[in-house]
What we know:
The chain is an alpha/beta fold. The chain contains four helices and six strands, in the order H-E-H-E-H-E-E-E-H-E.
Amino acid sequence: MKLNDLKPNAGKTKVHKRMGHGISAGQGKTAGRGTKGQNSRSGEGGRLYRQGGNLPFFRKLPFRRGIGFTPPNRVEFNIVNLDQISKFEKKEITPELLAEKGLLHHALNPVAVLGRGEVKEALTLKVHRISKTARTKIEAAGGKIELIGKESK
Length: 153
């Protein structure tokens, strides 16, 4: 095999169609663009602002930002994972301790514990909500969970 024997794979290259090269070339005169009008001209087809009489997208945006419903009484939780909690020396974990260590974004919001990570020793957690995986891992290590607030159903 020599360098002059190398060819691209079949279908890789496509012969460029020469537009506007006379009537017998198949794409002469209007070169496949039809006759007259915006799209038959060279250059870009109009500007972004023009949408055929519709209100342009970016002018519509300020009115669309408020679409949707955000419940006024929704509860946003501070999310903490087990791998963050297992680093503490204290065996009783409370929201005040988590806020003191800087793990809560908003100290006044309730705390939810998720199950990422492992627990090696018994912990007592006083939190507002806990996932099933976190609960099983803590109880398997001999720990206890106390739910506080109205989420303690």
